[in-house]
Structures
1.
Amino acid sequence: MTNQQNVVVPEAREIAVAAAETADSPTPVFPYPLLSKGGGGGDEFSLPDKCLPRLELGGNGGSGRINVWLETMKASSPTRAKEATAAAAISSTPCIADQNEHLSWMMRHPSALSMFDEITSASTGKQIVMFLDYDGTLSPIVNDPERAFMSDAMRGVVREVARYFPTAIVSGRCRDKVYSFVRLAELYYAGSHGMDIKVPAKGSSFKKISGKAVLFQPASKFLPMIDKVYKTLLEATKSTPGAKVENNKFCVSVHFRCVDDNRWLALADRVKSVLKEYPKLRLTPGRKVLEIRPIIKWDKGRAMEFLLESLGFADCNEVLPVYIGDDLSDEDAFKVLRNRRQGLGILVSKVPKETSAFYSLREPSEASFCLSPFLVLLDIFVYAHYITRDT
Ligand SMILES: [Mg+2]
C-alpha cells in the first residue's frame, strides 16, 4: 500500500502501512454488534454512500447530484435549531419521537464518559495511542477558520495526555497551520487529511522503532495543481459574501460557515464548475465546508495506520488506538478501527448521525472551562492507564 517513491525526504525510511485485512485482530471489547461487512466492512476505504457521498467530478458523478452532497453538508453541520431539538430530546419535556431517536442512537453509540470500565478493560496491558482531530474536536467551530484557537486548558490536557501516550493530531488543515494552533512539539502531526505526515526522529520516547525522521506526502505531485485550483477558486468565489477559500497545501477548503443559506447552492455550483477542469481532483462535503482533494486512496484512516506502523505498532495486539473526531472525514478512521476490531472510535456530536464510531461525546471542546466532557474523557484515559499499567 505504501509507495516508497512517495516518501519525499532522502533520509526517510520505507514504512509499510498496515494492511486493511485484519480478520485475526484482537477480540472486540464492545458489548454491541459491529457493523456488518455490507455496512462498512471490506477492504476498500470507503463508507456507504449514505454516510459519505462523494461527488467524483472526474468520474460518473456530476450534474444532478449537487443537491445530494449539499444536503449531506447541511446534515453534518447541525444548526442551532437541530442542536436545540437534540437537547430537548434528553430534557424533561422531550418530543417523544426525537427522544426515541436520540436514545436509540445513544444505545448504538453510548457516551464514552459512561464507559470507564470498558476503557480500563480494553487498555489493560496495552499501549494507548491517541489520534485527535482538531476543528470541532480540540477547538470550537468558529466563523473565521483562522481564529479556531484551542483553549489553554485543552492544550494543557493534551500535553498531559501526550506524556502517557503517543499522541497525533490528524487534521484537514495544512500541517503548519494546525501546528501553529496546537504548539506542542512532542505530538505527531498529519495535515491535509493525512496527506502530509511528519514523524520526528527525536522528541518522543514512545517510538519503538529508532530511526530517521519521516515525512510522508503521498500527494506531493499534486502540489502545483492544488495551488492553481486554489487561486481559481479564490477568483470564482469572491463575489459570494462570506465565502472563504483556504489553501491546506495538499487540499483546498471552501468554507460556507459565513455564507447565507440561500447562497449555498450557487456557491456550490461555482465550485463545481471550477472542478470540471480538474478531473484528478474530487469534492467531499464536511461541516459547512467543501473539500477539494486529489483522487488518491489516502485518507485519515490510512494516515492513522501509517502512524501506528511508524511507531512500531503494525500488526500488534498490544496497542489500543483511540481516535476522536467530529466530521465526515474522520469516518475513514472510525471505519479502519471497526475493520481492525481494535481500538476506540469516538464521534463528537450533539445530534444523532450516521457513523462508524463506537462511542460518542456530546460536546466539542469549546472548553474554556475545565469540566468539559472532552477533558474529563482524556482524564479517564490517563487514569485508566495509571491503574492498569502494571497488569
Ligand atoms: Mg473536525
Note: The chain has eleven helices and twelve strands.
2.
Amino acid sequence: MSKTGGCLCGAVTYTLKDEPAEIGACHCNMCRKWSGGIYIGLEAKPDAVEIKGADNLTTYASSEWAERAFCKTCGSSLYYRVTAPGPHAGTYHFGAGTVDDLGDAKMTGELFIDNKPKGYSFAEKTHQMTTDEVMALFAPE
Ligand SMILES: [Zn+2]
Ligand SMILES: [Zn+2]
C-alpha cells in the first residue's frame, strides 16, 4: 500500500511507497511558526518518495541541518527534510495534514514536549522527548 497527498491548491502532489504506521508531533518553536499550529509529521525515506509539481515548492533552510518546503501558491506546509549528512540525511517528514487519508496511522511520539503551550495536549499516550533529549539524539556533533 502507498499513501498519496498534496497541498491545498493541488499544484504539488506526492506518493509515498510505504504505508506509514506512525506519526509524530513536534512542539518546537520553528514547527509551531511554520505550520501555524501543531506540526504532525510522517517519516519517509528519500527513495520512497515521489513528488509531482516540485517546481511549485519553495524551500526554506530553517536550520543548518534541515529545510522546510511549502507550496508557492497556497502555502501548505508539505515537508521538513534533513539536509545534514549522517544517518538521517534526506529523510522527509511530511505534514500529516497533507496526506489524503491517514488510515490507521497512530500518533506515537512528541518532540520538544517542554515547548508545548500549556493550554492543550494530546490524549494519545506517546513517547515524549524534551529539548535536551532530542538534541542529544539528533543534533550534529
Ligand atoms: Zn498549493
Ligand atoms: Zn519541530
Note: The domain at 3-138 is CATH 2.170.150.70 (Metal Binding Protein, Guanine Nucleotide Exchange Factor; Chain A).
